[in-house]
Amino acid sequence: MGTAAQGDLPQRRRRTGVIALAVPNLEEPYFAELTALLCRRANDRGLAVLIQQTEGDHEREVDVANGVGLPETDGLIHIPRALTVADLTRRTSPGPLVLLGEHIQISPFTHITIDNRRAAADATAHLAAVGRRRVAFIGPRDSRPSDAADQRYAGYREAVAGHELAGDADLTVSVDAFTSAEGARGVAQLLASGVAFDGVFCSNDSIAFGVISALQAAGRRVPEDVAVIGIDGVRATEFSSPPLSTVAPDKDAIASAALDELDRQMRTPPGRDMPVQHVTVPTHVVARASTGR
Fold it and tell me: Can you list the domains of the chain with their CATH numbers?
């Protein structure tokens, strides 16, 4: 076995000890927390992380995938928002690559994700379990489509049907971005429409923070009048007023799986067949005061 390993060595690129991470936006708490965690876990493995913020721009995502403007690295962890499988198959600088998130689910590239549809269904089911019958959803993305938002909307609709909740079209409000400002705007739209609602499921925790603030400003008590739940499990959910119920992914598992899979590719000699891995990381409901638990 020693001879075979030595024969493989010339085929491997010299290791730099640096990996790249492409992230859409570090202003979003979930991405900021995941990035910090990836950096810590990479450091534990003797790796430095070069962070590239893409803003979800297609051209920038393609450039990062191709290594344009970047120093030589050992591999890339990419959280794409506009990148396509065709873009990746045409990479001009191929090398170890791990994708995170929903955007590219079926591809010949290793992929780490959560089940966004299941997470949304669990969030909506939790609101039904605490007695809410008219559950609004703030979070579809029409002007700037999002695969995660689409999956979360599908999960919400499944749970609405499965728990025989109200299905009024006015209970769904689209957003332009996953921000607190959009959450507040969504609540204003619900209130202005006159539609009755006693629960709100939000596409992420940032939207939920804006929802709670706007409800309280309008004189609606949380959770007595309206129960609110988000997705992402960001740290600030523990300290909002009231503390926010959320569906939390296992971020440690996401970071570990991404680095394990990248390391597996980095250790495999070029040209050697390597099975593609698709890893789904579990999520769980964290019930707090915003839903009365």
Answer: 2-115+250-282 (3.40.50.2300), 116-248+286-291 (3.40.50.2300)
